[in-house]
Amino acid sequence: MSEYGYYPELIQADKIYGTNENRTWCKENNIRLTVTPKGKPVVKTAYQKRKEATEYAERNQVEGKFGQAKQAYGLNNIKAKLKSTSESWIGAILFLVNCVKFAQVSGFTF
């Protein structure tokens, strides 16, 4: 069981995580996985296509923020020797990215 007592409805993952093992685990736990399904293509309704496109768009935003954290805020350049120090740096950078996003959404200017 998860930390909060339940699993999420959806996992938005890269294609590399669409292994048979991960697909089986997600199916057993009633979790949808945003990877291309295996087998013969299924005909989808317009609603299903829109929902899938929205889910991929959400994932792209998250991936974009990680890219921004790596390029602009030095997430790739962490050279701490201790695990706890590295985790602190990563947490600080992700906190900063979230603060910047909140400021943009709220209309704050610097």
Strand line-up of the largest beta sheet: 1-2
Average of per-residue pLDDT values:
89
In the predicted model, the low-confidence regions spanning at least 5 consecutive residues are none
Distance N to C terminus: 43 Å
Provide the structure class: mainly alpha
Number of helical segments with 4 or more residues: 3
Major sheet: 2 strands, parallel
Helix content: 40-55%
**Radius of gyration, CA atoms, in whole angstroms:** 18 Å
Strand content: under 5%
Oligomeric grouping of the chains: single chain
Total strand count, please?
2
Note the overall shape.
extended
> What's the SSE pattern?
EHEHH
Task: Explain the overall architecture.
This protein has 110 residues and is mainly alpha-helical. Helix content is 54%, strand content 4%. The radius of gyration is 18 Å and the shape is extended.
Quick tags:
single chain, 110 residues, mainly alpha, two-stranded parallel ribbon, 3 helices, 2 strands, 4% strand, extended
In short:
With 110 residues, the protein is mainly α. It contains 3 helices and 2 strands, in the order βαβαα.
